[in-house]
Amino acid sequence: MQTYIALLRGINVGGHKKVPMAELRELLTKSGLENVKTYIQSGNIIFQSLEANKGKLEAVIHKSIKDYFGFGVPILVRSKDEIETILNDCPFPEEKKVSGYFIMLSEIPEKNLMDETSKEVFSGEEFIITKNCVYIFYTLGAGKAKLGINWFERKLKVNATARNYRTMVKLLSLSDI
Predict the structure, then answer these.
(1) Mapping DSSP to helix (H, G, I), strand (E, B) and coil, where does residue 157 land?
(2) Parallel, antiparallel, or unpaired: how do β-strands 101-105 and 160-164 relate?
(3) Helix, strand, coil percent values for the chain (each to nearest 5)
């Protein structure tokens, strides 16, 4: 049985797309996922499954949420090992890494889009694009940042979702099922 982490984008933000975590855990358990746990209200799900195809797992979660709550949300499913690799491969020094964000990408962007986007420069915002993640550090904090998920999605033509360092570490610790 494989341990996975599902990252939902855009739920429980500003009163929109409300998804109570207790209902979500019950719903996903009924959908065939096992040992379902959630972490905070922003759509972090840890679960186990015999299914090895992450696309199929994303589809199961998406359909369950759409059918039950009446709206769809973007979902990325990654294995515990993939999340651990993303965290460990952060190219920033430790002091920036622990204050940084990890924008995980739904697929590998085209190389030319990665190269073009990497040339962009914004004061107080540093980022490094890899095939599965944009590592980003905001000198003045994320609240005043110009570069966010939407910007990277437009530039790289992929879906994405972001988590901060603390959430990534917590998800890994919770995935020790």
Answers:
(1) coil
(2) antiparallel
(3) 40, 25, 35
Q: Which CATH superfamily is domain 2-80 in?
A: SP0830-like domains (3.30.70.1280)
pTM for the full predicted model: 0.91
Pick the CATH number of 82-174 from 3.30.70, 1.10.150, 1.20.120, 3.30.60: 3.30.70
Strand pairing class (133-138; 101-105): antiparallel
3-state SS string for 98-128:
CCCEEEEECCCCCHHHHHHHHCCCECCEEEE
Could you report the per-residue pLDDT of 12-33, keeping only the tens digit for each? 776 678 888 899 999 999 999 9
- For the stretch 137-163, pLDDT in tens is 998 777 777 888 899 999 999 999 999
